[in-house]
Design goal:
alpha+beta, Aminopeptidase, 14-stranded mixed β-sheet, 14 helices, 34% helix
């Protein structure tokens, strides 16, 4: 994809001025100081720049709102991607095929080029990372004005060929504000939940966590720890990252290819920049059997939470050495050792994550096709989209330890 040369676009709505930047480096220091958003590491310029730098196939934009005093007061993270239906391997693909049949005379997907989606949020990380709004502002008002500007932007930039807009991933408590999207013909639907685990404040070490488990789950955990005892862990640093990237990429692709749905492919080289930028607050470690890497995990520590990011697994050895289970327990151990309050395990593998203590956190997405009639038809289908059912486990002895 050829990068657009646009660096700055301006729109005005009733309460705000909106500027669109196509590079992090185009945003001034004064704007960052006004926003005061970098305590949220997903809106730290180094995080955004690392992702932007390593994914040249994606068009990145940053929509910044200015108040009447010309002070920056909100930022939205935007990516424009080429969406390939062949990348979908779950039931959602069948749903799209049905939509295509119904909308045969009004094509849902363009036939001569990729389907382009403008994503408000983080393409690579599940969770509510699409915008930062100052707490003094009326969130619902900001989202209303944002909706006007993003529609104006998508309609006016014909060279971007945007087909649809997707705003992701909103927690239940945000829906009272994000419902404003529906006034602009966005259709909402539920997606796979985040699996989130609360760390009990009485757990001082990993053994306290094990003691809180019911016998069945404690036996399972100890068995996995025994199976994985031969694994050697290596902390990945900016200095030793380079020579591990090829194998990490291979292992990531094994996991990614098994996923039912990926918006885009992550460039593992991004890890080097993230580790350089965030040091101990960016978790990156690899797992080895003798001289062979068989897995890696990654994650961000922010706001008293350890957010699990991508993992890589050698599936041919996963059962023998309980590699994935070991990773889940390592996330928990690290969170306890660092006195954090939550582990956000993200989506996928819901049942096994619930078996270690995570509970589902519902997420909602808003979607709008640019063609009005197609968008109306889509609404009928999106109402049928439901997260994949799974058997939730309850591994703790009592609810006080969940």
């Amino acid at each position: 994809m050829q990068k657009t040369a646009i660096t700055l676009l301006n729109y005005q709505t009733k309460n705000f001025n909106h500027s669109f930047f196509s590079r992090i480096d185009a945003i001034s220091i004064e704007i960052w100081e006004d926003l005061d958003c970098e305590n949220n590491r997903y809106f730290h310029r180094n995080f955004l720049k690392s992702v932007e730098k390593n994914h040249p196939e994606i068009d990145f934009y940053y929509q910044i709102l200015f108040d009447n005093n010309k002070k920056a007061c909100a930022i939205f993270s935007i990516q424009i991607i080429d969406f390939e239906i062949n990348s979908i391997k779950n039931n959602f693909r069948l749903l799209i095929k049905k939509i295509q049949k119904v909308t045969n005379k009004i094509p849902f997907l363009p036939s001569s080029r990729p389907f382009k989606i403008l994503i408000v949020g983080n393409t690579f990380i599940s969770g509510e990372h699409g915008f930062f709004i100052k707490e003094t502002l009326d969130k619902k008002l900001v989202l209303k004005e944002f909706s006007k500007a993003i529609l104006q932007f998508s309609n006016s930039q014909s060279q971007l060929q945007i087909d649809a807009i997707l705003c992701k991933d909103f927690k239940y408590e945000s829906l009272s504000s994000t419902s404003v999207f529906e006034k602009f013909q966005f259709k909402r639907f539920s997606v796979e939940p985040n699996l989130v685990m609360e760390i009990n404040e009485n757990w001082k070490n990993f053994n306290d966590y094990l003691s809180a488990l019911k016998t069945k789950f404690r036996i399972k955990a100890k068995k996995a720890l025994q199976q994985s005892s031969e694994l050697k862990l290596i902390e990945i640093s900016p200095e030793n990252c380079e020579h591990q990237l090829i194998k990490m990429t291979e292992l990531y692709q094994k996991v990614s290819s098994n996923a039912g749905f990926n918006l885009a492919n992550f460039n593992v080289a991004t890890y080097k920049d993230l580790k350089q930028a965030f040091g101990e607050n960016y978790l990156l470690q690899s797992y080895w059997i003798d001289d062979k890497m068989v897995g890696f995990l990654s994650g961000m520590i922010t706001n008293n939470s350890l957010d699990a990011h991508f993992v890589g697994i050698d599936y041919s050895l996963n059962k023998q050495y309980a590699i994935y289970q070991r990773m889940l327990y390592d996330y928990i151990k690290i969170a306890i050792d660092k006195n954090l309050k939550f582990v956000n395990f993200g989506r996928t593998a819901s049942e096994i994550k619930s078996s270690v203590g995570a509970i589902p956190q519902d997420l909602t997405i808003y979607f709008r096709h640019k063609k009005r009639i197609t968008n109306r038809i889509l609404h009928l289908f999106l109402q049928r989209v439901q997260p994949t059912a799974f058997q939730q486990k309850f591994p703790f002895k009592n609810t006080e330890t969940i």
